[in-house]
Amino acid sequence: MQHDQHRRDNRNKSNNPSNPNNPNKRTDNSGGRERTDRGGFRGGDRGERRPHGQRNDRDDHGGRGDFRDNRDNRGGFGSDKRARFMKRSKESVMEALRSRDMLLRGVTKTMEDLDHTINLLGERLEDWYGIYFPELRTEERLKYADAVLIIDRENLDVKEIASVLGQKKAEEIAQKSESSLGAKISPKDLAQCHALARSMKSLGKLRDEYDVYQKSLAEELCPNLSEVGGADVAAKLVSRVGSVKRLALLPASAVQVIGAEKALFKHLKNRRIAPPKHGIIFQHPKISASPKAVRGKIARALANKLCTAAKADAFTHNPIGVQLRKDFEDRFSQIMKEYNAAKAKNPKPDPDEQDFPEQKLD
Fold first, then answer.
1. Which of 111, 325, 328, 142 is nearest to 215 (CA)?
2. Do 324 and 305 touch, CB atoms closer than 8 A?
3. Which residues share a beta bridge with 35?
4. Residues 213-228: pLDDT tens digits?
5. What angle do CA 226, 237, 204 make, to 5 degrees?
6. DSSP readout, 223-287?
7. What is the pTM of this model?
8. At 329, which CATH number?
9. Range of the domain at 167
10. Of 3, 25, 28, residue with least CA distance to 14
11. Among 215, 231, 263, where does a domain finish?
């Protein structure tokens, strides 16, 4: 017990900074300050040890004293520089909001939301009206809503139905209505289905008005893009990227796959998955209506022309859209000619799955 007490006393003496025999204690020649490896500076010109409970300016900033105040006075990260940063940020935001590209982005997003809403309401209307007439089927949601408003299963008007769905479809509906499995519902319940159908039609009318506005705005902001890819494709590309200038700074390979980011990242994660050949530009009729084997080539050719058109719209403002569209159509004719020649030379394999040698783009 005495031996342990002796060891503890020696350890406390060696750790005490005020002990003159402290082996860890060193003397700094500047100002007669004493410094220890464990306790920092003591004494000298920097001030003596304070009584318990006394504070000074160093304690307000975690021991750093007036460092922040001095730094502000020197103009480092002070109020003047912060004010300049805030002013520059506000100017950037104001410049972005003044750009009409934001209007094009807003109307494009609104149209996408309207399409999504119409599809959801169409699904609910089919489930609801299917209780009364389950045999009624159409490919388009809005045409289904029109058919709901004019069809009376007990008293069908074939001519009126034919004006909406066509003569063949009207005759088919008239035949199925005679042996329908649907239940009879009250006029009050049927009126609720009609109300939902009218709401869908109003949304469809609003969507058509926005479509006209989007086309005029796209032709104003990016006329060359609209000429080459169409107003709808041009508006969606600008909306996805953010502005015409940002789109102009992208390479053609990036423009080609805008809108197919998920498929691209799947390919980068697993190389055995084929990379995407097109994104938003698939909505161009030259690509969507072409055979699968040549869609990649057509998409590359279109992306090159769109990239050039975007640069002209953002910087030079030269009207080169007509010439770019002509060049793309010439390239499209060349690709289809090569495809038809390869198909005639080897007709047995499936041409959609066949890969023939890639041609270098102009």
1. 111
2. yes
3. 26, 41
4. 999 999 999 999 999 9
5. 80
6. HHHHHHH-HHHHHHHHHHHSSHHHHHTS-HHHHHTTT-HHHHHHHHH-TTSPPPS-SGGGGSHHH
7. 0.68
8. 1.10.246.90
9. 102-215
10. 25
11. 215
Q: Do residues 306 and 237 make contact, with C-beta atoms less than 8 angstroms apart?
A: yes
| DSSP summary character for residue 34 | E
Whether 155 has a pLDDT exceeding 50, the answer reads yes
DSSP 38-79: TTEEESGGG--PPPTT---GGGGGTT-TTHHHHHHHHTSSSH
Answer whether 328's CB lies under 8 Å from 309's CB: no
3-state secondary structure of 165: helix
- In total, how many domains does the chain have? 2
Please report the sign of the dihedral spanned by the C-alpha atoms of residue 152, residue 155, residue 160, residue 165.
positive
Domain shared by 143 and 172, yes or no: yes
3-state class (DSSP) for residue 184 = coil
Integer Cα distance of 111 and 202 in angstroms: 14
d(CA 310, CA 82): 36
